[in-house]
Structure to design on (542 residues):
């Protein structure tokens, strides 16, 4: 009997210890992300005076890669989401005979929630992995060390342009996503309820306050920062060879999507008070 | 720290004093001290795990030591501000194992990168300078290729061109012969010697290739398990009384006496 108790105690202590260590590891990573964020902003703002300027060309080419090339897939997904919201909205509102209110329901859910979330998830899948893979491969090939010994700060050279590019591209993508999703909703309402487009547009404009759109956009800034920082930090931490890069890539996507959804929940809570 | 009275530049280019380094809680360099004179080629040799790559990383300012000082061209790099370190880096060139060329840029863009960062030269001038350096390493005409299109020897030479583009006073090589066939390796050795002769560069080479080491070295530092075993010129090292150095030079495998009881215990525990 005593042995069983002893075993139980040992087991629970080791489980506690392991989860304690994991929590510390999570805290360490969050801390590292924040310091990376602070450092990239620092170089973006003050780099010019420290002989470490953040050049414009890499920012715009990164914005192209992150933003413009993501337009087709995000447009497709947004259209589908807008249509889906119309379907579900009409179905639920039918119980109250309030189908005419569906435009309001779609407008609010799209601008405040779905457009930034869908955009964030797609950009995370495309770009968090790409960033982690690029930086991770460079780390393995000692290119990051090479930058340092030439006198180029790797964060200034690699992360700051990406961060600034995200802060340009994400809101732009969300604006596009808003339009396409609302169009999808309009199309379905027209087909299902016979609602004329002009009525839908008027309903939408009545329902939306500028703060709704703005809150969606402000979420997108945060999501963009999360994607860049998670991708970059996982890339910098790669030690093993190709396998390490692969792991970092997968990890970046999973962690950034999870963080985006968590951040979305927190933001939504505070924004709706 | 001696000074050259005529030129006012220090006669000792690199000085390491009591360098202690840790990886986590494990001490990997135990109070290493050595110095390199201006214009000499110092080879740092040692077996695997001897700490020579770690020492190199500290010399390059990529890691901070636990304690001790590292002076490059008279300045203690463990105490410099970021701006001062940046200025010092103009005088340092590094060729990494595997080249570490930036894979997203052409050879020419790679070689020109230090120029872009440290100077305000116009495009044409930078192109001429990068072409001069590519001529020095016999890579003329390959400037528009991407690193993925180069052979191993060409990658090393392009990396060398990038390292010398700013005419640095200090040049570091990490395993220059790694992955190269003997002919190309010999050509690289000749290049290193000519860089010292023509430009009076101080060169530090970390390698375990014995033939290259003895061919190019003015002096050799032998490391073993984080300790300095001996520092001397090639003749002194060759005739060293230290058993581990002789093993290293003569490529003798380590002779660890077999304890029968230990052996049995390991098998049956």
């Amino acid at each position: 009997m005593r042995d069983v108790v002893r075993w139980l105690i040992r087991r629970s202590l080791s489980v506690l210890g392991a989860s304690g260590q994991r929590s510390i590891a999570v805290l360490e990573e969050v801390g590292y992300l924040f310091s990376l964020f602070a450092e990239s902003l620092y170089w973006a703002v003050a780099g010019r005076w420290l002989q470490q300027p953040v050049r414009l060309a890499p920012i715009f080419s990164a914005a192209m890669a992150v933003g413009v090339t993501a337009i087709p897939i995000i447009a497709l997904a947004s259209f589908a989401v807008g249509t889906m919201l119309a379907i579900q909205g009409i179905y639920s509102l039918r119980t109250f005979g309030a189908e005419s209110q569906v435009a309001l329901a779609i407008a609010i859910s799209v601008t405040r929630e779905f457009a930034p979330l869908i955009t964030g998830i797609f950009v995370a899948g495309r770009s968090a992995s790409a960033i982690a893979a690029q930086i991770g491969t460079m780390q393995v090939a000692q290119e990051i060390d090479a930058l340092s010994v030439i006198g180029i700060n790797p964060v200034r050279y690699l992360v700051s342009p990406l961060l600034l590019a995200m802060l340009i591209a994400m809101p732009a993508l969300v604006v596009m996503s808003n339009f396409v999703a609302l169009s999808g909703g309009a199309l379905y309402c027209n087909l299902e309820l016979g609602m004329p487009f002009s009525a839908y547009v008027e309903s939408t404009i009545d329902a939306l306050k500028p703060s709704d759109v703005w809150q969606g956009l402000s979420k997108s800034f945060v999501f963009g920062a999360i994607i860049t920082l998670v991708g970059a930090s996982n890339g910098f931490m790669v030690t093993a060879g190709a396998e390490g890069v692969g792991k970092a890539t997968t990890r970046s996507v999973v962690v950034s999507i999870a963080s985006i959804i968590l951040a979305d929940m927190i933001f939504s809570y505070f924004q709706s008070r | 720290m001696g000074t050259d009275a005529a030129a006012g530049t220090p006669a000792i280019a690199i000085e390491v004093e009591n360098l202690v380094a840790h990886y986590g809680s494990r001490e990997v360099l135990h109070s290493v001290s050595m110095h390199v004179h201006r214009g000499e080629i110092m080879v740092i040799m040692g077996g695997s795990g001897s700490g020579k790559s770690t020492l190199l990383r500290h010399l390059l300012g990529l890691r901070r030591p636990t304690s001790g000082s590292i002076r490059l061209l008279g300045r203690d790099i463990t105490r410099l501000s970021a701006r001062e370190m940046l200025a010092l880096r103009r005088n340092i060139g590094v060729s990494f194992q595997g080249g570490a060329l930036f894979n997203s840029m052409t050879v020419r863009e790679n070689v020109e990168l230090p120029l872009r960062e440290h100077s305000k030269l116009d495009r044409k001038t930078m192109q001429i300078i990068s072409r001069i350096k590519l001529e020095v390493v016999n890579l003329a005409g390959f400037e528009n290729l991407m690193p993925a299109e180069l052979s191993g020897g060409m990658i090393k030479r392009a990396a060398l061109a990038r390292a010398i583009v700013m005419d640095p006073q200090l040049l570091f090589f990490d395993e220059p012969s790694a992955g190269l066939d003997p002919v190309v390796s010999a050509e690289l050795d000749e290049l290193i010697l000519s860089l010292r002769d023509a430009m009076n560069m101080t060169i530090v080479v970390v390698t375990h290739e014995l033939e290259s080491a003895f061919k190019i070295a003015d002096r050799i530092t032998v490391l073993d398990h984080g300790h300095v075993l001996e520092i001397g010129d090639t003749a002194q090292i060759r005739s060293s009384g230290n058993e581990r150095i002789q093993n290293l030079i003569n490529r003798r495998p380590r002779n660890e006496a077999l304890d029968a009881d230990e052996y049995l215990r390991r098998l049956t525990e």
